[in-house]
Design brief:
The protein has no helices and 21 strands. With 312 residues, the protein is an all-beta fold. It has a single domain, classed as Porin (Beta Barrel). It starts with 40 loop residues before the first strand and ends with a strand.
Amino acid sequence: MQETTRSMKRTIPFAFCLLFFAVPCIHAQTPDDGFWMEPGQICIAVPYSYDSWDEYWEGALLRDNGNIGTFKRQSVMPMFALGLIPNLNVIIAQPYVWTSSTAGSVTGQQGFQDFSLWLKWRPGQFQFESSRLDLSVVGGFSTPVSNYYPDYLPFSIGLGSTNLTGQGIVHFEMTQGWFATLTGGYTTRSNIELERDHYYSGGQAYYTNEMDMPDVATGRLALGYVNPHIKADVFATVMNTLGGDDIRRQDMPLPNNNMDQTRVGAEAQWYITQPRGLSFIGFASYAVAGRNVGQSTNFGGGIAYQFGLWKK
């Protein structure tokens, strides 16, 4: 029932984060795009995201829930990307999330979610007559920074695990501005602690407060166009949880459920001429398939500003 936290999602792309959703910045902002910050350049972005659903997949069954009505998740995620040296970027993000619903008596959560840090390295670049091919790898780390309660789905603001992520990026770009980016990633997640001494999962009772979290595989394909004034693309993302079971009929979801999701969407960034370095972001996506997640619609926007901290 819950959107994945992308931890990440997007990947999260992500992902995307799941849920999290990737938001571009000038030349580079997200861990899963094919664009880069030059050494000494920093981009600071503040995107806002609104996500809602009134139906969710209980296993393979798409259903509604009168005790929830329409579920809503909102977030503000300050983040920055910095070019450290040639072909090496660092990206940091810290979202603030709040949840609510239109029915029932359950109160949502709000607070700071998971701090995320990624290192993005480009070991290979191949220049052709009218195009370029980049090969990149990304390593990421995320962990909760507040004492939120993960065993409170779908109202929890996160899943509570500490995550390590690795992914590869293949980016092909033509001199006319058309590009394609393919990303594949794997996230390993730590166990989490519940505020109860037993739980029932996979047809078995566990008499412990420690819950094993399955790992997650993600993929993303983006097709788009970039020039000095705009960067825009359409994308599809896939998240596959490698383990876990389905939500039991008429029961609450668990953090270790098998949460799978396929989303399609579009995003764009407009660069203005004055003041130099300022841009505006817009994005939207929709869950077209899933398992134990909400069939959600997501949209949002934000502002980004790029400037130089030091010369090359």
